[in-house]
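Changelog-linked ticket: NAP example.
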Amino acid sequence: MGKNEVKNGMKRREFLKNSSRFVAGSVLLPIGSYPLLSAVTPSLKEKSVPEILLNNGISIPMLGFGTHTLKGAACEQYVSEAISVGFRLFDTATIYGNEEAVGAGIKRSGINRKELFVTSKLWVDDSGFDSTIKAFETSMGKLDLDYLDLYLIHRPRGDIKGTWKAMESLYETGKIKAIGVSNFEPDQLDELMTYAKIKPAINQIETHVFFQQPAAHQYLKQHDIQMEAWSPFAAGRNDIFNNQTLASIGKKYQKSNAQVCLRWHFQRGVIAIPRSSQKVHMIENLDIFDFELDQNDMETIAALDLNTTQFPEWG
Ligand SMILES: NC(=O)c1ccc[n+]([C@@H]2O[C@H](COP(=O)([O-])OP(=O)(O)OC[C@H]3O[C@@H](n4cnc5c(N)ncnc54)[C@H](OP(=O)(O)O)[C@@H]3O)[C@@H](O)[C@H]2O)c1
């Protein structure tokens, strides 16, 4: 049993009692083991977002809200709406230019900060020890928060070693609850782990039904690093919302293509952070915990993999 697993009923109850982010209906899943969910516990059918423990013991929701391209007052409104319908995990980044708006949306919602899990990312221009410390403080000022739940290296560029050392020192002061990376290939993670004192908790990478990344998925599981999917809907590319294979699976459960996609991520043990500027979509995206894809569905979806990025322009 891995060190981040909750070993028995008593320990789980103690953890839940002490967890500030626990809400009724949350369920903690052991990282790295994802049986079909009805086999775990019937309470997974409740609608609250289940949480999982990262490799440092921090709890994170399995489903969150992405904010790329959302800006200004609109972003503030969407974040506040997303909180009102039940999202608790928010993903922003320095390069999105919306940390102020995300922070304002959080304030506007009136929610207790401790109920949320907020992620931001260090952009490549700020790599290196001193620049990372400075960029982090700037982000915190914009978000107007006194701690961050997760800070990621956005892309594997520049002085990664200096950046990681700075992130470790911020983590040690308690200003960040977990640190990780984004867009890292397995060999780049291998390299980082030759000098890291603290193992990355997460690797956030492009993953959706058209780019399933089985090798990265396997590698991250083996190394106890949580996989998080960016663009879980491929940002709508390749006509994902009208895909006939997803539609015929969804029909069996009276679920949309979007819900089938999100459920697929969840059953793979991958955290998804869909973005939406429509409340009806936000509500729909949260409504994935009352059905289960069967083995045939999972195999059918596996066959949709095109094994290539849907964002070649970001290469
Ligand atoms: N680390 C990285 O390098 C990286 C790169 C890219 C993205 N990200 C993160 O990942 C997040 C998600 O990725 P993304 O923003 O690229 O795109 P995405 O979440 O894959 O897709 C967003 C699109 O899906 C639509 N949508 C959402 N829910 C829907 C539903 N239920 N039915 C139909 N359409 C729906 C949205 O339209 P509506 O607004 O109309 O709902 C929007 O056009 C980003 O926002 C960002 O936080 C990280």
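Closing comment: Example verified and attached. Residues 63-314 form a domain with the TIM Barrel fold (CATH 3.20.20.100). Confidence is low (pLDDT under 50) at residues 1-27, 30-46.
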